[in-house]
Write a structure and sequence with these properties.
Elements (H helix, E strand, L loop, with lengths): L1 H18 L9 H6 L6 H8 L1 H9 L12 E2 L7 E2 L4 E2 L1 H14 L3 E6 L5 E5 H17 L8 E3 L5 H13 L3 E3 L6 H11 L3 E5 L2 E3 L2 E3 L1 H8 L8 E5 L13 E3 H7 L9 E2 L3 E7 L7 E6 H15 L8 E4 L6 H13 L3 E5 L10 H9 L3 E4 L1 H10 L2 H4 L8 E4 L6 H11 L6 E3 L34 E4 L10 E7 L9 E2 L3 H8 L8 E9 L5 E6 L3 E4 L2 E4 H9 L4 E11 L3 E10 L7 H14 L8 E4 L13 H9 L13 H17 L1
Parallel strand pairs: 4-17, 6-7, 6-8, 8-11, 11-12, 16-17, 16-18, 18-19, 19-20, 29-30
Antiparallel strand pairs: 1-2, 3-13, 4-5, 9-10, 14-15, 15-23, 21-22, 22-24, 24-25, 26-27, 28-29
Helix pairs in contact: 3-4, 5-6, 5-7, 5-12, 6-7, 6-10, 8-9, 11-12, 14-16
Length: about 675
């Protein structure tokens, strides 16, 4: 059996190597015939009158007062969109679908990690959201008050967000993988009036006592008046009189109807804090009308979503912006039927994602390259045992995808029939900025291709900001877009300094390096600080990683720059091998030579460290900051967001073993 699997794996590697020779992948004719956007004139139209084009998208939403003003550019970079309009996000996500006769449509197929299932229709969600919105008002939460949300991937997190939006109370969602101290920090910064949390959160067969952990750190927060607790795990937890209330009890006691607040388009919808590895977290502030315009338009066009036909699954977490934009607001604005999964991609088994795709008939699937690479390591057999014939579109998000992972995704998951939308965007942009339109754009493995209509992206040189027509430089956005962050919460000066100080107040500095090819396609390389300077050669860590993982024995790699007396910096690569392969000195030489052939001898890693796994957040992002710490022998920074803290202990043992051998 093992020999058969090995033979199949070798044949797949051979096929992927052959596919690397294909420069472009055209969308299938059958897809183009029904695509939401199939006329290339959309780019010209949006560029010729970008303000009018965005206004056209805004008018696809339901407004209490339709806007007549597009963008107010009088005080850049503090742009304002559709500011004379009145709108409500909760109404757009729920009421209008129910009023249109689609209340019985399933909004979410929810699956718990132990196999529990719940189906929530749009009518169900509207009922629950109205009850909880009234419950919040009963506790004294008013328009403009910040409400913290610290919940796992359960339906109550959706209800909580939409209830806040309904009454105009901006929410501050904290990813469930953060520590209680990180939650406290974010509640303190935002001066949250209430926090919604859970008795216990389940993860891979274990339960974390979330409420108990929250209680330890929240005592001295003067602004926090209430902690609302969802009963999920059933674990006992202390409830403090006068402060703590049960979610289900206050909902049962609340009135059933809560009309949505008619809010200004620029009313804050949410604050979302980005992690701060060297400074305090940044509170990205998004407002209502422009944000909804961006996420609803991109969800419809990028994913070619067809309400009532598609079953859509964004396999992210609501605690990150991907979850905000493409699990909650974008899909619900468009009347989508989505899958929501509580657990990890490898529990209770490594084929659970594909089992759920088959069970619910998923047609659109959106995930991170890191997760795809993990699936590659586990083996194609976990995918192939499930019927994925209903899949018609695949997407990636979170970081640049290396060509090998792109091709594996295309062949093994998509059966070579599904267009792949490789999307680039950020917490700050709110919505997708660079992406193929699947019915229009031929794709290249590893390239996010073109800016979304209405978005003006550019690659410029580092010194003067002049356009780089072909080659590498800094990625920038040169005009405002509706879903852009409005500021950093209570830190206007930091907002300007961080994003608009290098090239002026009308050019948004993304913070990523990118290159533009001869066809004008964008290749996002990675963060500006994810560049290694080896003897004057500036190398993208993502480029080196891509070369390493193209080796047939490599499953995953993370590259960092390490201090070096001779070259200034040297390349250090943490490498995970396929299956049960063991790292050897011969394989180190083989991988170094392979990188030399792909990029050049100067790009060969000076140091390769074998890693059974890499330190990742629960959303799947590799924590390169921790890898830099461990390679340089520094004390580790915050590890509370890691999916598995034991990974760092194992790597420390590897480093010690390496040092012992050298000594």
């Amino acid at each position: 059996m093992a020999d058969t699997a090995s033979t199949a794996g070798t044949e797949l590697e051979r096929q992927l190597e052959e596919m690397l020779e294909i420069e472009k992948f055209d969308p299938p004719a059958s897809f183009v015939e029904r695509a939401n956007l199939a006329d290339p004139a959309v780019y010209e139209e949006a560029n010729a009158d970008w303000k009018g084009w965005w206004m056209k998208q805004a008018r696809e939403l339901s407004w209490f007062r339709e806007p007549t003003l597009d963008v107010n550019e009088s005080n850049p970079p503090f742009y304002r969109w559709f500011e004379d309009g009145k709108i409500n996000a909760s109404y757009n996500c729920l009421d209008r679908h129910v009023e249109a006769g689609n209340g019985d449509r399933v909004a979410f197929h929810w699956r718990g990690e132990e196999g529990e299932e719940r189906e929530l229709t749009y009518s169900d969600l509207l009922r629950d959201v109205q009850r909880f919105a009234n419950a919040l008002k009963d506790l004294g939460v008013r328009k403009g008050d910040i409400v913290g949300i610290y919940l796992p991937m359960i339906p109550e997190v959706i209800v909580s967000m939409l209830a806040c939006a309904r009454i105009g109370a901006p929410h501050n969602v904290v990813f469930g993988g953060f520590s209680a101290d990180a939650v406290k920090e974010r509640m303190e910064f935002s001066e949250a009036k209430a926090l919604i949390t859970v008795d216990g959160a389940r993860r891979k067969g274990r339960t974390a006592p979330i409420k108990e952990q929250v209680d330890v750190v929240m005592d001295d927060l003067e602004t926090l008046e209430h902690i609302i607790v969802v009963k999920h795990s059933g674990d006992a937890c202390e409830m403090r009189e006068g402060r703590d209330v049960w979610f289900h009890e206050i909902c049962d006691a609340a009135a059933p109807e809560c009309p949505p607040e008619e809010l200004d388009a620029e009313h804050p919808l949410y604050v979302l804090y980005t992690s701060g590895s060297t400074a305090k977290p940044k509170g990205v502030l998004h407002t209502t009308g422009g944000y909804l315009t961006g996420v609803s338009a991109t969800h419809s066009y990028v994913f070619d979503h067809k309400p009532g036909e598609d079953v859509y699954w964004c396999a992210a977490d609501v605690g990150w912006v991907t979850g905000h934009s493409y699990i909650v607001y974008g899909p619900l604005c468009n009347g989508a039927t989505s899958v929501m999964w509580e657990g990890a991609p490898d529990y209770p088994h490594k084929g659970i994602w594909w089992e759920l795709c088959e069970r619910y008939g998923v047609t659109i699937f959106y995930t991170a390259p890191t997760a795809i690479r993990a699936c590659i390591k586990w083996g194609a057999e976990h995918v192939e045992k499930h019927d994925l014939s209903r899949l018609r579109l695949l997407g990636t998000v979170g970081e640049p995808i290396n060509p090998k992972a792109w091709l594996w995704y295309h062949k093994v998951v998509g059966g070579e029939r599904c267009p792949i939308v490789d999307t680039w965007w950020q917490t700050e942009t709110g919505a997708i900025m660079i992406t193929p339109l699947p019915g229009l754009v031929s794709t290249k493995p590893g390239s996010a291709t073109r800016a979304f209509p209405g978005v003006l992206a550019d690659v410029v040189d580092e010194r003067e900001g002049n356009p780089v027509e072909e080659g590498q430089g800094l990625l920038v956005l040169k005009r405002p877009w509706p879903s852009m962050l409005r500021t950093l919460y209570k830190e206007d000066d930091r907002f300007v300094e961080t994003y608009f100080s290098k090239f002026g107040r009308t050019t948004y500095l993304v913070g990523d390096a990118a290159r533009r090819d001869k066809d004008g396609y964008f290749w996002v390389i990675g963060r500006i600080d994810d560049v290694v300077n080896v003897s004057g050669h500036r190398l993208s860590t993502a480029e080196v990683e891509s070369a390493i993982v193209s080796h047939p024995k490599v499953a995953e790699s993370a590259v960092i720059g390490q201090s070096d007396e001779l070259t200034g910096q040297a390349i250090c690569a943490f490498v995970t091998l396929n299956g049960d392969l063991a790292g050897t000195d011969e394989l180190i030489d083989e991988i170094r030579d392979h990188v030399g052939e792909r990029i050049g001898k100067f790009a060969r890693p000076k140091r390769i460290i074998w890693a059974d796994d890499l330190p990742k957040t629960r959303s799947g992002k590799i924590m390169r900051r921790l890898l830099r710490d461990i390679a340089e022998g520094r004390a580790l920074g915050d590890v509370t967001t890691l999916r598995d803290a034991g990974v760092m202990a194992a790597l420390e043992d590897k480093i010690k073993e390496e040092q012992a051998q050298e000594g």
